[in-house]
UniProtKB/TrEMBL annotation:
Residue ranges of domain Defence against restriction A C-terminal in the record: 9-61
InterPro entries to which the protein is assigned, alphabetical: DarA_C
Protein name in UniProt: Defence against restriction A C-terminal domain-containing protein
């Protein structure tokens, strides 16, 4: 996942490997406040992504690696 801070209130993570479905993103410590699937892989600022998730706090490196 690629991280982008969209504003002071949320952190956006792009799903670059697969479409977003249950079990494909971390929810153990916090849940996303927004989930967006594009339907097809799209080029977003040089990143090819299937969609994105927004969280209120940044995810830790160990969560991102799982």
């Amino acid at each position: 996942m690629e991280e982008q801070n969209t504003n002071a209130m949320s952190y956006r993570y792009y799903s670059t490997e697969r479409p977003i479905n249950p079990g494909t993103f971390p929810t153990n410590r916090q849940r996303p406040v927004k989930i967006v699937n594009f339907g097809t892989r799209q080029n977003i600022g040089g990143i090819k992504a299937w969609g994105y998730l927004e969280y209120l706090k940044p995810l830790s490196d160990d969560v991102l690696m799982t």
